[in-house]
Amino acid sequence: MKAQIRFLAVGLALACSATVGAHHGFAGEYDINKPVQVTGVVSKVEWTNPHARFYVDVKDAKGKVTTWNFELASVNSLRRNGWTQTSLKIGDTITAKGYAALASKTMANANGVTLADGTSLFAASSAPSVQQTPSR
Amino acid sequence: MRTPLLASAIFAASVPFLLAQGVDSPTTVNLGGGSAWRGNVPNGPVPRLPDGTVSLEGVWQGGGPSANLQQGLPKGETVPMLPWAKARMAAMKPADATEANCLPATTPRVPSTYPWRLVQYPTHTKATHIFMLFEANIHSFRQIFMDGRKHPPADELDPSWYGHSIGSWDGDTLVVDSVGFNDRGTLDGAGAPQTTKKHVIERWTRKDLGHMVNEITIDDPGAYSKPFTLTFEATLRVGDEMMEYICNENNQYGIAGGKK
Lengths: 136, 260
Description:
A: mainly beta; five-stranded mixed barrel; disordered N terminus; disordered C terminus; B: alpha+beta; nine-stranded mixed barrel
């Protein structure tokens, strides 16, 4: 049942991929020309407004762990796009894609998350590529 | 919690079928921002309250400027902005945006993608108040006095984000007259300025169950060379409800961009 719901949620989210909102503009915070992709373990999820966030512990080749802070849309937009507060859980191994922050080396705006089982979760981000009307 | 999600998903899957059946397209023009709601918009008759007044109640999407004022102007027209206002807008940085700082929008803006609810109070007899409840951004409300009072004298009118609003009925059209604004709010997300001289008249007409047109005249001689009129349409979000949205809960705006 859970897997089915997740599947439906993802389908719904993809159907709505141009509809999410943001409370600030993308350009002042993130660089659309700097895509990032990391794989690691979710260490914290903040199911909050104006943006939900997840934190991923990413280990490099030498074993050094860096914690990334990925911004999602608001809880309200995520819920209306099929996410729930358990869509991402602490301990999940994930691959997160997004756009790098302008002024931080460990922050990014998420635009896609893939779980270890291959399930993709659309991130409902504020990136221009997935937002119909930029808003602040 | 699971059932609404499933219902939404099933609805999303059925949209093409509904379209084939002649139901309105879920997307409409002049939403005043991106549309976060993909439910179908109903076309039924305009509902009325027990006293015969047209009911404007419901959870709505759009109906006012959001990202850009220009979206509400007739084709070919431009906003008659004074030079200083143009210059201020051009100099505006993303960090200056009120919404990014969890401050309210201003009349007649509506949230970009979030729903708002109109409440007529009371409903069993002539309403004395109308409230516009905003889910975001930020959680706040507008209050429209329907009891026949006038605006307070200028020296008692405190500058505010949403202004002082009095409403009356012109047939089935709700006419809302608002004054008493601060000079901090912006008329759209792009930063169109306003001054304390701003005077707004909104004319809200519910065309049918699912559609409500708002014809807005803005007169602000402090920032615009002449009054201008915008038209937006609100659409009913059937099945949606207001959600909590506390903007200050975890606002990290500015950190990623190096402004904090």
